[in-house]
Amino acid sequence: MIPFLDMKSAYAELKPQLDAAYAQVMESGWFVLGKEVEAFEAEYAAFCGAKYCVGLGNGLEALELVLRGWNIGPGDEVIVPSNTYIATWLAVTAVGAKVVPVEPTLEGPNIDPERIAAAVTPRTRAIMPVHLYGEPADMDAIMALADKHGLKVVEDVAQAQGAKVRNRRTGALGHAGAHSFFPTKNIGAFGDGGGVTTDDAALADRLRTLRNYGSKVKYVNIERGYNSRLDEMQAAFLRVKLKVLDEWNDRRRRIAARYDDKLAGIPGLGLPRAPQWAEPVWHLYVVRAERRKELMAALDKAGIGSLIHYPIPPHLQEAYADLRQGRGTFPLAETLADTVLSLPMGPHMSEKSVDQVAAVARAALGG
Ligand SMILES: *Cc1c(COP(=O)(O)O)cnc(C)c1O
């Protein structure tokens, strides 16, 4: 049996530090907006190479609050990938703005800067690139476009904590980076969590108000805010996980390299190929399989977990049926949805397991 993601081993490896963090928070008697969150914010900002980090409730609200922080709302357009997890779109529609989906590059999986240029209108306010599967989007090209048109850029870093473009971390490449610390992410809490990194002092200040009912001073509310706060316990756990993030990302890198090697030459199987300038962190190892059904069935029969990220693109979800973007509207996203398959991946996967997965794939597809 090879699980898609081995979650229990994270606790097993870090048990003494995590247990100590738990005890410290419990004994402090302080659970919301305290020393642990402050310390994590400083450490995570430094890790990303950003001036500020604001801890929030989850990744979706991190995206949404950045848009709120920039006063983006009804009448505004935000460019999003057609090929993404639905959270990216939900953040835009939650503030009342219009999603303008843009297709990925032919190599995929990320948004195509040339197609972004064609989608900009006088109403465009922001671009929301996603570093899907841990592979950075083409931020140099995206920032050049944003500068040219006076647009804001918020990176969706949910799947790419620690990834780099030309030696600079994601989350510090745009005007803001929205992070998720959902348990399965590269740096995951033991519950929900999120945050925003930015160099923009005004945005950071606004987010601190928005996350706390629109209040800076207790019981004085200067705007209609949210309750979206990273809590002390999760922040304490995340401080432990941050110390091993680079090392755990290195382990993912080694697994990806071994997959590349062992899966080479299998007919009808496309392997992930990151651009030269990108240093991905392999949140997922996603292949493209012409005969995906057979491959999934063979893996399943061998007790090997695999998942599709994602089987239905946002524009074909019932949640967005009112946009009337039927099948055929975003063919590249649709083709990816029909062919991608994520193989087991994680910092606790063994080389032997990689070899077993590859052997089953080769037996199923030939080559
Ligand atoms: C996980 C994820 C989110 C949302 O994060 P949550 O913390 O679950 O709200 C947003 N975007 C992408 C690409 C994600 O993978």
Strand-helix topology:
Layout: H1 8-28, H2 35-48, E1 52-56, H3 59-69, E2 77-81, H4 86-94, E3 98-102, H5 113-119, E4 124-127, H6 139-149, E5 152-156, E6 164-165, E7 168-169, E8 176-180, E9 194-198, H7 201-210, E10 215-217, E11 220-221, H8 232-263, E12 269-270, E13 278-279, E14 285-289, H9 292-301, H10 331-339, E15 340-343, H11 351-365
Bound molecules: pyridoxal-5'-phosphate.
Count of structural domains: 2
CATH topology of the largest domain: Aspartate Aminotransferase, domain 2
Proportion of beta-strand residues? 15-25%
Spatial arrangement of strands, main beta sheet: 1-9-8-5-4-2-3
> What count of helical segments does DSSP give?
11
Mean pLDDT: 98
Q: What's the Cα radius of gyration?
A: 21 Å
What does this protein look like?
The chain contains eleven helices and 15 strands. With 367 residues, it is α/β, with parallel strands linked by helices. It folds into two domains: 8-242, Type I PLP-dependent aspartate aminotransferase-like (Major domain) (Aspartate Aminotransferase, domain 2), CATH 3.40.640; 245-365, Aspartate Aminotransferase, domain 1, CATH 3.90.1150. The strands form four sheets. The protein has a seven-stranded mixed sheet, with helices on both faces. It has a three-stranded antiparallel sheet with strand order 7-6-13, with no helix packed on it. A three-stranded antiparallel sheet has the order 12-14-15. Helix 3 (59-69) runs parallel beside helix 4 (86-94) and helix 8 (232-263) packs across helix 11 (351-365). The protein is globular. The mean pLDDT is 98. The structure holds pyridoxal-5'-phosphate. The site of pyridoxal-5'-phosphate has 15 residues, from helix 3 and helix 4.
